[in-house]
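Changelog-adjacent note: as of this version, every example in the card shows the full chain rather than a window. The one below runs 181 residues end to end.
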Amino acid sequence: MSSNKVLLHACCAPCLTNSIEELIIEGFDPVVYFYNPNIYPEQEYLTRKEELILFCKKKGYELVIEEGDEGLWHSLCEPLAKEPEGAKRCAVCFEMRLDRAAKYAKERGFDYFCTTLTISPHKNSKVINEIGKSLCQKYGVDFLERNFKKNDGFKKSLEISKNYNLFRQAYCGCQYSIRSI
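Full-length structure tokens:
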């Protein structure tokens, strides 16, 4: 692997749009990684996955799909079901998904991993980046700290999504975040 190869965890096509473009402009060669066992219900999961597959094909992006472990997600997050959106449950969910991405990146020889999660104005980029930094120490693969919502990143993602007629979800993804809409 070249030293500019980055595994980019993506939760959905809309969040990928501007995030991946920024990394490419910076000189990185991203490989998109979809691992999101938190997405509920199954039809929502399938819709987001298929939309990501179609977008990556249109753009020529390499995509890796790792099917989820819903049982693990439930065991970690169910005890935190009553937590408000954006609190401890979300951090646990981010860590579970980023841990899998970091492990995959290490096993496949990537020098970096990153996530599109920071593009959402509803997610705390500082928390996500702290989790990523802790995992880079665990796995020995560097985490690219980013706040993709900066410089109108989220607004740009909306425009790109509209241009490609991408499905945009109404909630983060898990069964508990549905109640926040």
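Structural remarks: The CA atoms of residues 39 and 46 lie 9 Å apart.
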